[in-house]
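Regression test attached.
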Amino acid sequence: MARAGLTADRLTRAAAELADEIGFPNVTVSALARRFGVKPAALYAHVKDAQDLRVRVAVLALAELADRAATALAGRAGKDALVAFADAYRGYAKEHPGRYAAAQIELDDETAHASAARRHAEMTRAILRGYDLSEPAQTDAVRMLHSTFHGFVSLERQGGFSRTPRAVDLSWARTLDALDAVLRDWPPDG
Amino acid sequence: MARAGLTADRLTRAAAELADEIGFPNVTVSALARRFGVKPAALYAHVKDAQDLRVRVAVLALAELADRAATALAGRAGKDALVAFADAYRGYAKEHPGRYAAAQIELDDETAHASAARRHAEMTRAILRGYDLSEPAQTDAVRMLHSTFHGFVSLERQGGFSRTPRAVDLSWARTLDALDAVLRDWPPDG
DNA sequence: CTAGTTTCCTTAATGCTATTATGCAAATGA
DNA sequence: TCATTTGCATAATAGCATTAAGGAAACTAG
């Protein structure tokens, strides 16, 4: 048999593409093997098991998302930075729904530490530099921002907003306006 | 063989308990059958298939969540209502993580219409009556509220906040303060 | 209280998935 | 060119979802 030239990286990238096409939960060892024209057992020489494969896709997605966010953030501050970061986040989730879903799985501390998760936290804090918040308000604001972005994108992706005709893009813009306003006037319990 | 007395309702309730114990994705037809001491095939007389079972758990969870939110909301207005609703939402997710996860699956329009999803939308709008918002701002605000609640609860549940020592309860309180502030002064792009 | 009917669960079978052990063939390198 | 390493296939085990067919329990009628 001619060899398929499998590597962990190629499998991971193909799994990520597959996730965007058929959904992250449907990415199975068998489906990935079919895509390469090999038997499922062949994959086990390159990845430990199905969970290892999922984690690799998650780490890839986190890195890609961090890259995109970093580019969007470059040279911006204040509300510009907030909107650019948020749009990068939402844009990635829309273009790569399977990868985005992968990025949500729980990583053990070791993997998370080695992943781009830290870059995400640093970038979110970088946004807040334009708003002059000190701890612990900064941590609270980071959590709120992350919650709002993730919640909005998740609900949009699973059709949670589709029962109302109002354009989702407009609600997104108003939501970012709201976040900007509340960050400018933090603490918010006036 | 003595009969197990299976019904769709008993299966659904048991599946919900199982979801809270072992996680929603681990609720399988086989695991549920084991819990009742019957063979997996026995369940198919009461539920159509595994997906039907998942949807039933989702509908149950949505109804329970709506009940809890309605109770919390009774007799409150303004920020009191906002906080009570949000705490009910977060409390349910913490007490019933498996049910909460179930409530996030996509329902087809027919099922969603018959479910408590509408009650949720009505209650969120009821909260906003204390803030004097008219359309389309109201829809934008509903979407932002839902996004923030869901995002925060999801991230908290999967450990997304655990790498910072700041107590999550405090960040939650500040986030609700922020939402209250921005609702009082909507539109937020001043 | 017994016979017929319905209901519920079991058995049996198929097909998909994950995973491991074993073997062969291709690539590598001395 | 021969030996070694590496990569994929084959084969086997096991779990899950699902359907078809059979038997026993519960219900119903006379």
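Expected vs. actual: identical. The CA atoms of residues 11 and 32 of chain A lie 8 Å apart.
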